[in-house]
Amino acid sequence: MKEESNANRLEPGHCGIVKLRKVGIIGLGHVGAHVLCDLVNQGIADEIVLIDIDREKAECEAMDINASMAYMPSRIKVYAGTYGDIGDADVLVNASGKISLSAASNDRTNEMRYTVAAAREIAPQVKASGFNGIFLNISNPCDVITSYMARELGLPKGHVFGTGTGLDTARLLFRLSHDSGVDARSITAYMFGEHGNAQFAPLSLVSFRGKPLAEMAKTNSKLNYSQDDISKAVIQDAWTVVSAKHCTEYGIAATAARMIKIVLGDERSIMPASAMLEGEYGESGVFAGVPCLLGAGGVEEVCELPLTKAEWEMFHQCCESIRNNIALAEEM
Question: Of 252, 248, 292, whose CA–CA distance to 138 is shortest?
Answer without folding.
Answer: 252
